[in-house]
Specification:
Layout (H helix, E strand, L loop, with lengths): L9 H30 L4 H23 L2 H21 L6 E4 L2 E7 L2 E3 L1 H22 L7 H17 L3 H17 L4 H21 L1 H11 L10 H13 L24 H32 L5 H25 L17 H18 L4
Antiparallel strand pairs: 1-2, 2-3
Helix pairs in contact: 1-2, 1-10, 2-12, 3-4, 4-6, 4-11, 4-12, 5-6, 6-7, 6-11, 7-8, 9-10, 10-11, 11-12
Length: 365
């Protein structure tokens, strides 16, 4: 090895590469027959994911891997403000638009982008920089107010879209990151209490959210309405048995299960590969979390350590929430399964996140 040159953690690199590659293979298997039925071509969705998700994601991920961490820290506020600006643009009629009652996309000709996906990453980077700066100054009491203000602005914009699932992920990761930075326990309890109260208020204000929560406790309460997706997901997962019905042979993805290649892709994958396939996928995410936190223990720089833990928490918690909602363990949440679900915006941002993780891991070598 060249003296003085640092390399990424090989364990984290290997697990990350396998997870991304496995995700592409899953999408290829799940989407092929579905794509043929919908578009007349077998690999339409796969090709779109490769061209508008994987390819730009790898380029931007390599850029994120190459940028000195001090620049990421210094520019973290700029990145966050850019994300907030993009969130505002979704409400403009000439750039954004309503899809299924929500304003979540920016459209530029044939190109579309979901700003809330970028916000997941930029909010983590800024919070890591904020918490690192405060801890270095030994003024942790002054951290709570700016932290709450940031989450408040983000919450307002996501509630207006509405995108409560994304808000839940950002809020939970932010609170955990705040706690991991060494802040007083009463700060954590105060924010958790406030978050639960805000969630109950949001559920109370939107009848469909209350209905979704009721269906979570009793899936047969509205089997043809709010409970339809989880009912079909459970049927698909159950019919997979131990070894699955076979790759590409899912019945649920043919107009039965909503969002079969995006939010519900885990249910289709479990149907095709069975318990063993689903368990292997869950194990991959757990291995990713284990290796990332093992690397974090070796990082001395506070910003780098918090950013690494924040990105890991985001990816793993989102994966567990997605899979948990498909199995009835958690209420139904409309968020993608990282590296697996169809969607270019999510994959690009996730690969940038991986680039930053590997960049940070160089400090542990």
């Amino acid at each position: 090895m060249e003296r003085g040159k640092k390399y990424p953690d090989l364990g984290l690199l290997g697990i990350s590469a396998f997870l991304v590659g496995f995700g592409i293979l899953i999408l290829a298997s799940v989407s092929s027959s579905f794509s043929l039925e919908r578009t007349g071509t077998t690999f339409y969705f796969l090709n779109h994911q490769l061209l508008f998700g994987l390819l730009p994601g790898l380029v931007l991920g390599f850029l994120a891997y190459s940028i000195p961490l001090r620049h990421l820290k210094r520019l973290s506020l700029v990145f966050l403000l850019l994300s907030v600006l993009l969130l505002i643009l979704v409400f403009l009629p000439f750039m954004g638009g309503e899809i299924k009652g929500a304003y979540r996309w920016i459209f530029l000709g044939s190109f579309s982008f979901q700003p809330s996906e970028l916000l997941k990453l930029t909010s983590i980077l800024y919070l890591a920089a904020l918490l690192a700066a405060r801890s270095e100054k030994k003024k942790m009491v002054q951290t709570l107010l700016p932290f709450v203000v940031i989450l408040g602005v983000i919450s307002m914009l996501l509630i207006l879209q509405p995108d409560i699932s994304t808000l839940g992920i950002i809020g939970l990761v932010g609170i955990l990151l705040y706690f991991l930075s060494g802040t007083p326990l009463w700060h954590l309890l105060l924010m958790l209490g406030g978050g639960v109260a805000a969630l109950l208020l949001l559920i109370r204000l939107a009848p469909y959210r209350l209905s979704r929560l009721a269906v979570f406790f009793d899936p047969m309460l509205d089997p043809l309405g709010q409970g339809y997706q989880i009912k079909q997901a459970l049927i698909g997962i159950g019919s997979g048995g131990l070894t699955g019905v076979g790759l590409g042979l899912s019945f649920q993805k043919f107009g039965v299960l909503p969002e079969p290649i995006s939010d519900s892709i885990f249910a289709v994958f479990a149907e095709e590969t069975g318990f063993f396939g689903a368990a292997f996928l869950i194990l991959l995410f757990l291995l990713f979390a284990w290796r990332s936190f093992a690397v974090a223990k070796k990082i001395e720089d506070t910003f780098a350590r918090l950013a690494l833990m924040g990105i890991t928490l985001w990816i793993v918690l989102q994966a567990l929430v997605n899979m948990g909602s498909m199995t009835g363990i958690l209420p139904l949440a409309g968020i993608p399964l990282p590296f697996i679900s169809y969607g270019g915006s999510a994959l690009v941002v996730e690969l940038i996140g991986l680039g930053i993780l590997l960049n940070i891991s160089k400090q542990s070598s």
